[in-house]
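Annual report, structural modelling task.

Input specification for the N-oxalylglycine complex:
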Amino acid sequence: MSMTFTPLTPNFAAEVAGIDLTRPLSRDQVQAIDDGMDRWGVLVFHGQRFDDETQLAFSRNFGDLEISSGAEMSKPEENRLRVEMADISNLDAQNRVRAADDRKRLGSLGNRLWHSDASFRAVPAKYSLLSARIVPPTGGNTEFADMRSAYDALDEATKAEIEDLITEHSNAYSREMIGFPKAAYGAEFQDKLRPVRHRLVRYDPDTGRKSLYLSAHIGAVLGWPIPEARAYIRDLMEHATQRQFVYAHTWKVWDLVIWDNRTTMHRARRYNDLTDIRDMRRSTIRGEGMTVQQAA
Ligand code: OGA
Ligand code: MN
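The model returned the following structure:
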């Protein structure tokens, strides 16, 4: 059976059928998925019965894996999963539902803001692969925004204005936005919060397309007063997350969704995380370079 791609919106996100990702893939199959990512930005696969081992093996087809920032920012005994798996669940290391005032729960609420994964790293993430192991009965969608279409829809004056802008990203900025203090991370992790610089407009030589590189982790525009920068970024965020640019994914157990962090943003939607269990596990492919050095 060969792979089929069915669009989920006219230009953005597709559902892929006809492949079992838990088994070793051929070069051609990997290439077809990579090409699909270039075309659609987000790919949805159903019925992929991954465990952590098979998810990581599949993920390695697309590049080197990141160590999850959640694991990097906590003590080893606090982690439920191995360090290559980002724990996108409401469970603690003993598989208990986290309490309302749990520090990790509060930090993870930052995922409810529109963001691009690991944009707070000098070399930010390429793909994220999120596997649904347990889904809540209601809520907990993930929304994706198409940052290539959002860029294309800007007027020419705005495109010219933003072409060479450099932004500063830090996990501290996004957490600050929801009132989670920098100090809550502890002294030993403060160097991980140092802002990094990225281009606001990214260009992909493979597709010839530009995209808006926005993220809740942005806290500054180089050379701009902070309030002006934040007001401007907020306007761009509003533009880029209009419904015509968004695909909302309702999860079923054993879904795997892959998104390209270079051309999309995403956010988590609310669910009853004090009563229902949501166990999602993310592997993340390291990017291929610093955005500030990319050829224009
Ligand atoms: C992520 C993320 C959103 C969600 O896994 O990087 O932001 O809906 N997840 O859990
Ligand atoms: Mn994310």
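The chain has one domain: 4-286.
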